[in-house]
Amino acid sequence: MGSETGPGTESGTGALTDTRGRSVSYLRLSVTDRCNLRCLYCDSRMRQWLSHDEVLRYEEFLELMGLGLNLGIGKVRLTGGEPFARKGFMEFVEAARLRFPQLDLRLTTNATLLEPFAPRLSAAGVARINISLDTLNPATFARVTGQDLYAEVRRGIDACLAAGIRVKLNAVAMRGVNDGELAGFLALARELPLDVRFIEYMPMGGSEWKPEQVWRAADILAEARTLAELTPIERGGGPSGSNDSGPAQMYAITGGAGRFGLITPLSNHFCGSCNRLRITSGGVLRTCLFSDRVYRLRGALRHPKLGLAFVERILRLASQVKPLGYELLAARRAGQGVCGTAMSAIGG
Ligand code: SAM
Description:
- It is a single chain.
- By secondary structure, the protein is an alpha/beta fold.
- It has a single domain (26-346), classed as Alpha-Beta Barrel (TIM Barrel).
- Helices cover 29% and strands 18% of the residues.
- The chain has a twelve-stranded mixed β-sheet with strand order 9-10-11-8-7-6-5-4-3-12-13-14.
- It is globular and about 60 Å long.
- 43% of the residues are buried.
């Protein structure tokens, strides 16, 4: 399995690193594969849900978080499917905060069920929430998501802001769907102290992706500059100097309370600085969004003799050979997804 000190160390010490010099410090945990929306870019209609026994218990997620912390993972994002669609999610967040007070704990949600939980999330020290919202038009929202829940999302956003939680809105940029809405999103970011970020539409499994639907970041930016005065913010130039923008290029909006940003997985990949691992609700580890290579952790985690020590070995070995997603994207044949799995199952 490798030498004691170099790459291949099976029960090494210290942080998770790979052979390209990247280190892993960020874990995304998908707490459920189920979602109350049926977004056209993340189609879950054809999917078979995991059975109750196949889904990791909250206690098992807590064990993985504890292991991650020991391995240098200081930031955990809870996602799904839709995390609030899983029973007991709020209590799980509170339990995670109590057990790991030092953890930078974040959430990604569609916000349809969020509003009543905002004060508790704030009290539990969840300071930042990503909310997926592709349109500011209720009819388009219903068409994209299959559900008439736009008003619920807007109330969720307002409740978070009122509770002092920083909000990032993520919109999947789709030609023919929301490419007429830039002015509206910029107006929102002027009015409210939140980040509006457009993310390029990726050819993920299960989506109805077509090349002509991709609304490239360069085109979005060019149009946005005709609508607002935008000043690039250096990475690490977030509130209080924090590096909280992840792979997004952010812009200040002159006269605006909020900011504007672009996430460019297609046109300008950020694989060289990727620091993340994903674990799905079924306990499957993915080291790259664009790769179908998976590592099944659940059996080891539940095995009386293997347990967390063995999971640690898998995490170390898998991290070392973490792929470069853009190579996989480039190798994709026309008409193919980059991986065979929808984001709702991976944990976006
Ligand atoms: N239910 C939660 C939510 O809506 O935020 C968390 C999971 S959802 C899969 C996370 C996000 O992944 C989506 O809202 C969207 O921003 C992103 N996503 C899913 N499929 C995508 C695709 N094909 N291209 C770009 N982003 C995608």
